[in-house]
Amino acid sequence: MAKPLTLYLGRITPWQVENPRYVATVSGSLEPIVTAGAVIAGLPAVFDLDTAIGAQLDVVGLWVGRARTVRLPIPQPWFSFDDDRLGFDRGVWKGPFSGSFGVYSLDDETYRRLLRANILAKRWDGTVPGAQAAFDVFFIDPATHVFVQDNAQVPYPQILFAFDEEGKGFDQAYWFDPAAAKATTERVDVSMTIGVSGRIPGPLELGLLAQDAIPIKPAGVMTTYAVTSVDGAALFGFDVQNEFVSGFDAGAWGVEPERLLEA
Are 210 and 246 in a shared domain? Predict the structure, then answer.
């Protein structure tokens, strides 16, 4: 915390404190230094992700590597009445400097959430919970369920039976079977699906998903997005019945975000 000017003036000796010209000289000399110190002491809060606003938040975005302006892949994302896709909580408010081709400058709170998601994505540890945390930071609508599905099947068990090794004995490890190992390895699906069920996000969120604005993608792994095609419905899938995935008469086909933006 910066020290106030009165602290320094209070240290003037009694012999000199009675001289107003001396006190004025000390005060005039120290005031710019004290003011500069206060500004410097306040810089961490000004550029803190939780408190930065406006131009300061733009600087934080430069550090993170995510600009405030985004291009929405639809010609008309702006708010309008009598359109379920562009009504309240869905359409994007057109600002005075917004372009006519879907170039949009995010407001501070939305931009802040996107930056948090990008920070988590760039320090991602490769796990499903880590990826889920990045999407949960940005998608805050409780009616929209974003989840991460690792499609890779478990390859041939790596814990093989061995004598005199803890955890690899009888009833703990597997006998090696070359035929089974080959067949199982060939069935591994190296891909990941980001599913969105429940309430369909607005065009802004769909546009950000479509352009991978939250860069969750392992090296060498194909990442696809599947968004429910029916508002409020879970994604269609077998042998599961919950708010994320459901079967016949409950689940809806998952489509790419671009398909919903073009609809």
Answer: yes
Beta carbons within 8 Å of 153's beta carbon, 6+ residues apart: 184, 187, 188, 189
- Rounded Cα distance, 223 and 130, in Å: 15
Residue 263 token pair: 């609809």
State both tokens at 66. 């995510």
Same domain, 196 and 166: no
The Cα 178–Cα 164 span in angstroms is: 23
45-63 pLDDT per residue, tens: 889 999 999 999 999 999 9
How many domains does one find in the chain?
Answer: 3
pTM of the model: 0.69
Same domain, 138 and 209: yes
pLDDT of residue 129: 92
CA–CA dist 238, 243 (Å, integer): 13
Upper half-sphere CA count for residue 226 (Cβ side, 13 Å): 21
Please spell the DSSP secondary structure of 42-87, one letter per residue.
HHHHHT-TTT--HHHHHHHHHHHT--SEEE-SSS--B--SS-TTTS
Asked whether residue 219 falls in the same domain as residue 122, the answer is: yes
User: Beta 245-246 vs 144-150: how paired, if at all?
Assistant: unpaired
